[in-house]
Specification:
The chain has eight helices and six strands. It has 234 residues and is an alpha/beta fold. It has one domain: 3-Layer(aba) Sandwich (Uracil-DNA Glycosylase, subunit E). β5 and β6 form a beta hairpin. The termini are far apart.
Length: 234
């Protein structure tokens, strides 16, 4: 049976290969904070979300315990998601700037959002073994999303995870940094600080900084088309 994004999604949602992550995602649902008490939690691994024909890939670390682990969609229902989808909307990749629940009408165009690890980890810190157990899902997404041109890695963990998933890391290994950029095979990888509260509340990441990353991703995606059009015009 040929691989497909639907098959990857089904396998991700059914995955229970990391006992520590299974226990934590379910504990987070049982011990929800007061603001979410009484809500039904997804409490399962999260598949990627977006346009199967995407040229832009956004890679995060893992779902948030009371964000995606609660709502059932990556970067949905938490502050990091507020920043991400607002930036994607400004750059023309999303039809709306908010992502609060799976039935809120959000649609992505030319963009796909995923993560290195698919379950919420304790302290937002997956182990290397958990990363390596989960990385095959990202590897398959990279093969199946065959229009991809640009990847934005949100944080150093996502940067390293993307490099590992490609199987084509150059030597010396490219260093992560905000707005760092490197060509990896057919993909251009761009680094961005993660839009976590730790980064946004302290000013390490500002909205103009974040928006500039997606503006650059958009420019890189459109540049070949512009060049081709210019050549035809001449």
């Amino acid at each position: 049976m040929p691989d497909s994004l639907r098959k990857v999604t089904d396998e991700v949602v059914a995955c229970s290969r990391c006992p520590r992550l299974v226990a934590w995602r379910e504990q987070a649902a049982r011990e929800a904070p007061a603001r979410y008490r009484g809500e039904h939690y997804w409490a399962r691994p999260l598949p990627g979300f977006g346009d199967p024909k995407a040229r832009l890939l956004v890679v995060g670390l893992a779902p948030a315990a009371h964000g995606g682990n609660r709502t059932g969609r990556i970067f949905t229902g938490d502050r990091s998601g507020d920043w991400l989808y607002r930036a994607l909307h400004k750059a023309g990749f999303a039809n709306q700037p908010t992502s609060v629940r799976t039935d809120d009408g959000l649609r992505l165009t030319d963009a796909y959002v995923t993560a290195v690890v698919r379950c919420a980890p304790p302290g937002n810190r997956p182990t290397p073994q958990e990363r390596d157990t989960c990385i095959a899902y990202l590897e398959r997404e990279l093969r199946l999303l065959d229009n991809l041109r640009v990847a934005v890695a949100l944080g150093s963990f996502a940067w390293d995870g993307f490099l590992k998933a490609t199987g084509a890391t150059p030597r010396p290994k490219p260093r992560f940094g905000h707005s760092a950029k490197v060509q990896i095979g057919v993909w251009t990888l761009i680094g961005s600080y993660h839009p976590s509260q730790q980064n946004t509340f302290t000013g390490k990441l500002t909205e103009p900084m974040f928006d500039a990353v997606f503006a650059e991703a958009k420019r890189l995606i459109l540049q070949p088309a512009v060049d081709s059009q210019a050549r035809r015009s001449s």
